[in-house]
Amino acid sequence: MLLNILKYPDPFLKTKAKTVDVVTDELRELLDNMLKTMYVEGGIGLAATQVGVAKRVVVLDIPITTEDEYGDEQSEQGKNVLKLVNPVITDESGETTYEEGCLSVPGVRADVKRSAELRLQAMDEDGKDVEIHATGLLAIAIQHEVDHLNGVLFIDRLGLVKRDLIKRRLKKAAAAKAEDIADAKAEKAVL
Ligand SMILES: [Zn+2]
């Protein structure tokens, strides 16, 4: 089943998600549905908060990029799937900057400063403890998703001026869209 991804400025995105006590079949189904939704929407990570569920679970799949015989980049999904329950970053070091985007903040990309390397403890989808050492894009994506579980968006990590500019633009776009929908309904009502 595909899930609906909440978009900024939906207030639910500010929710601090709750720790999962037991990994159940229902939770495994949620993780599967999140992964399917993430692929359809073209993301590399998705947190439950983004689909309106206040549970500390995230899915990730950093695609493997290789070159084909013509030198064109091919990216392969499904090799790096991570389904993490109650992820906790236990150690982080270094600094890196990456131009991030987010399925909940469509059309916006901005440079965000993060730790370059981290260690993470979590449970997998069988409820077993796992420890992950992450660098590169995986480390960045994990920090982005854990932020979602704490109600924080990547645009919240930008400088004040840039953040305000983006937020104002997004709120204006959302209001214009709501007006369009209202207009469409009004037209229908007349007919
Ligand atoms: Zn995101």
Q: Categorize the overall geometry.
A: globular
| Proportion of residues in helical segments | 25-40%
Question: Strand tally, please?
Answer: 9
How far apart are the termini?
34 Å
State the strand order across the main sheet: 1-2-5-8-9
The proportion of residues in beta strands is 25-35%
What is bound: which ligands? zinc ion
Described by strand count, sense and barrel closure, the largest sheet is: 5 strands, antiparallel
Radius of gyration: 18 Å
Briefly, what is this?
32% of the residues lie in helices and 28% in strands.
Overview of the molecule:
- By secondary structure, this protein is of the alpha+beta class.
- The chain is built from three helices and nine strands, in the order αβββββββββαα.
- The protein has a five-stranded antiparallel beta sheet with strand order 1-2-5-8-9.
- β8 and β9 (129-135) form a beta hairpin.
- The model has no long low-confidence stretch (mean pLDDT 94).
- The chain binds zinc ion.
- Residues 102-104, 144, 148 line the site of zinc ion (ZN).
Give short descriptive properties of this protein.
191 residues; alpha+beta; five-stranded antiparallel β-sheet; 3 helices; 9 strands; binds zinc ion
